[in-house]
Amino acid sequence: MQIKKILNEKEIRDIEKLIEKNYGCKINLGKYKVFKTGEEKIWIVEKGVDMELCKKLRCYAMGMYFGKLKRNNKIKLSMEGAMMIGKIAKKNVAVIDEGEGMKFIEGENVIASKLIGCEQNNFVIIKMNEDILGVGILRENFIENLVPKARRINF
Amino acid sequence: MIPDAEKLFSASTEWKSIRVNTLKIGRDELLERLSEKFEVREMPWYENGFFIKGDITKSLEYYLGYYHVQEAGSMLPPLVMLPDKNDCIIDICAAPGSKTTQMAMMMENEGIIFANDVNSKRLRALAHNIQKCGVVNCIILNHDGRFLWKKGIKGDKILLDAPCTASGKIIKNKNMTWSYGRVIRMSKLQKRLIESASKCLIDGGTLVYSTCSLEPEENEEVIDYAIKNLNMEVEKIELVGIKTRRGIKRWGDKEYEGAEKAIRIWPQDNLTEGFFICKLRKY
Ligand SMILES: C[S@@+](CC[C@H](N)C(=O)[O-])C[C@H]1O[C@@H](n2cnc3c(N)ncnc32)[C@H](O)[C@@H]1O
Q: Are residues A135 and A110 in the same domain?
């Protein structure tokens, strides 16, 4: 794993602001070490990790992939990133019913039963009952599926 | 020969075991959800373990990472180790990460786990499972465990879930092959790994050694080697709800030190894979 940058407090706060802007909720990333790898990918790792020591080791990966920064102040959250935020998110949340939920898990595009403060062409968090299923992009008539292939299930 | 071997095979393959991922969901909530879809039995030796009948890799809860599919016996080494939130743990042979993710959840995602494996292909599965379980306290390393001590990392606790001939898996795979030559090669590798593990451990630290092999050369003999050469002593293991037996003290003309405190889990006793576990302390 090639760490490009370990984010300082201000840079972490900028990501928190980005989350607030897109999802209308406050999260505390300051309790983690936050770093960037290639393609603007953001990772979080336990604060106690000695990053200097890790540089001396052959490190394949570290912590949890949180999401990828995108143009126009957007962020494509990982499934786990979406789960961290989804329970408290107040906008850009698409609610889907169980039938659509099963399709979503299989990797298909879906139709939302309710859109909460969603912006066209932004990344939306997909919610089914109390579960957060991941993220998609809100298109004109549907939600584009962004579940990684390795995480899909074929029922 | 094990009596009723056929019954044993079918019972052990019909019921799959899973571990709740408490980093994502509460145990009782998952139990309630799964009970609506599957036949579920609670695991007598671990509150977060369930036996389930049905296709457990095709459920919403599996997709969400609310549970991890893990062999019932494989949940025991972390229970012997009892990782703590403040620990720095080294998991020397970690892929695909069943025990790593279990330890991470026991640590409530705090402390640090160095999860190492030599096999870069298996690291993908390790990274996948760590991500899916929502683990943030793991650093995945790709070193040959035999030389890890040269890298300057020290652990308060070490898990050496060693590569082995896996003869304890016989309960799930009747067609496995066995050769004494492989047993001996594994035994040599395991001794080198435990030597490296002891050097990575702080004084007074705990090392849990485990395999899913039934061969004394891969188990009691490795412990005997550690006691005689590596400043290590064996500690008693306390597990409840599972039938365990003591390690094998005498094998052919060999006599092993420490075997009386090591435990063996035989496939026929609990319908799990066979396992050997020993807890050692460095003095
Ligand atoms: C029994 S498996 C580990 C299972 C894992 N602890 C779990 O619970 O999912 C043994 C692992 O040891 C790894 N291994 C074999 N030789 C090794 C070595 N010299 N150094 C480090 N890892 C090694 C293998 O690649 C394999 O992934």
A: yes
